[in-house]
Specification:
By secondary structure, the protein is mainly α. It has 2 domains: 37 residues; 80 residues, no CATH class. It has 5 helices and no strands. It is flat, with a radius of gyration of 19 Å. The chain starts with a helix and ends with a helix.
Length: 118
């Protein structure tokens, strides 16, 4: 178990890291605008959204591969299937990767919450 000071350091570090990940690109954009306009760089940036969705899918599929870690009464297939269905509908309706990812995570989390009976 982690001590309370370790938890505080972890939370402050995560918060600072998140802030810097959002602040620094905006700060650098002014001086590196020419770099951001390159076609190759635009392709890399456009791939980040789908890469985040695939990363979330891979994390959720690990439970299917490692069957010994499954909780009783848990249906990974149901959660993954419904989350993917919601993401597909959101992508068709909104065409916004951020909203699509958010909806997939929310649907997955709500179904897990309902399955665990919390």
């Amino acid at each position: 178990m982690m001590s309370s000071s370790a938890v505080i350091v972890l939370l402050v570090g995560a918060g600072l890291g998140t802030y810097l990940l959002r602040y620094l690109p905006m700060r650098w954009y002014v001086t590196l605008e020419v770099v951001f306009q390159r076609p190759a760089f635009k392709r890399v940036l456009s791939a980040l959204g789908p890469a985040a969705i695939v990363a979330l899918l891979v994390v959720s599929l690990v439970g299917l591969i490692q069957g010994d870690h499954r909780w009783s009464g848990q249906s990974d297939e149901l959660r993954i299937g419904l989350a993917l269905l919601a993401m597909g509908g959101s992508r068709y309706w909104q065409k916004n990767t951020i909203i699509t990812t958010f909806i997939g995570v929310v649907v997955y989390g709500v179904i897990l919450w309902l399955q665990l009976g919390v």
